[in-house]
């Protein structure tokens, strides 16, 4: 889906890691939420409450998911699932555009 209709956009930005990651929250009529954001090159560790699906729209990063010691390359057009109540680390290699869907 490249376009969202009939949604509410939260005006205030979500700013993490001194501006290295910035997103906006999109709220759908059924109450579900997504964030649309940009990540600058760098290393970032996030924690989750609800399970998430991260879609990488463009850019490239190396990803370490919970319970794994391996780094996996993820690029534009790919996605990955993050379990609830966990943390994951990304080494962002180039400017990365993403969409994060919150499932819980």
How would you portray this structure in words?
β6 and β7 form a beta hairpin. It is globular and about 40 Å long. The relative contact order is 0.27. It contains no helices and nine strands. With 104 residues, it is mostly beta strands. InterPro entries: Ppnp, RmlC-like_jellyroll, RmlC_Cupin_sf.
Any chance you could write out the topology, listing elements then pairs?
Blueprint: E1 8-9, E2 14-16, E3 21-27, E4 33-39, E5 42-47, E6 52-64, E7 72-75, E8 78-82, E9 87-102
Antiparallel strand pairs: 1-3, 2-3, 3-4, 4-9, 5-9, 6-7, 6-8, 6-9
Keywords:
104 residues; mainly beta; Jelly Rolls; 0% helix; 61% strand; globular; Ppnp
Query: Which CATH top level class fits?
Result: Mainly Beta
Q: Which stretches of 5+ consecutive residues score pLDDT under 50?
A: none
Structural class category = mainly beta
Strand content: over 45%
By DSSP, the count of extended strands is 9
**Count of individual helical segments:** 0
Global morphology = globular
Mean pLDDT equals 96
**Major sheet size, sense and barrel closure:** 9 strands, antiparallel
C-alpha end-to-end distance = 20 Å
The CATH topology is: Jelly Rolls
Oligomer: single chain
Corresponding CATH superfamily: Jelly Rolls
Count up the domains. Answer: 1
Q: How are helices and strands ordered from N to C? A: EEEEEEEEE
């Amino acid at each position: 889906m490249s376009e969202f209709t009939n949604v509410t956009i939260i005006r205030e930005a979500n700013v993490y890691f001194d501006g290295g990651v910035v997103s906006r929250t999109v709220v759908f009529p059924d109450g579900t939420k997504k964030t649309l954001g940009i990540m600058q090159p760098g290393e970032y560790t996030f924690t989750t409450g609800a399970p998430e699906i991260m879609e990488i729209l463009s850019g490239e990063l190396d990803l370490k998911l919970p319970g794994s010691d391996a780094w996996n390359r993820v690029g534009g057009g790919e996605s990955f699932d993050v379990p609830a109540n966990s943390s994951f680390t990304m080494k962002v290699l180039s400017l990365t555009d993403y969409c994060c869907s919150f499932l819980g």
